[in-house]
Amino acid sequence: MSWLLVRSFFRPRLVDRQRLTEGPAIYCFNHLNGSDPFILMGTLPMRPRLTFFGPKEEDMSVGGRNRLMSWTGATIPYRPGKNDLLEATRRVVAALKAGGVVAIAGEGRIQPFESVVGPLSEGPAYFALRAGVPMVPIAINGTSWLCIGRRIQVRIGEPLVATGRPTRQAVDDLTERCRRALETMLAGEPEHAPPGPFGRRLTELFNEWPEGSRTAAEAAGRAHRGEPADPKKGNGSRPRIRRAAGG
Description:
The structure is a single chain. With about 250 residues, the protein is of the alpha/beta class. The protein has a single domain, classed as Glycerol-3-phosphate (1)-acyltransferase, CATH 3.40.1130.10. The protein contains 8 helices and 9 strands. Strand 3, helix 3 and strand 4 form a beta-alpha-beta unit. Helix 5 packs across helix 6.
């Protein structure tokens, strides 16, 4: 169903498919839009079985995205503030032992810029080391703004070998290797111009911005990198903008 829906609305392209592992693995992807899990379900091969770790929600019956993710049966949610993380971890390990792959949004939140990867959580590296499976960086481009018929690219990075115990140093080292790989794959990607009203509604359908809005998230991201609040002003270089094709 996800394959049909994604390809009915967008033009997904899988790059470097040969890098995907045949057995269990942890997939760590950058996160531009709440629809990214559905994009991956509609782009990646159907085998091995794909499961997503998250989202972090108190009640998966609340919200359209949560209900849709629950309906797919491809999610391992966990509750913030609840003592069920151990059970969620057991489910991740069980999915890997069954020969499947577990995908995790490494940044733990959506980001507003196509060419930027935020700090990664330690979860993907920890799970990979604990299970002794490769960690595969996956770069998504084209979902920061959604338009009907938009080209969306899913690029597969070189699998990162995870060996040894999940010590703090080992987790930190593997996390940094994955962050650098994602940063390299995302570098130079142009930002998309905002689409029309329909495209904006489609884009924000499943989005939840920690800052409260996309505008606030963009301002926070520029401030973090020391860029002008308005990219049209100041001496900072303006990001390349790709015009919206529709929406």
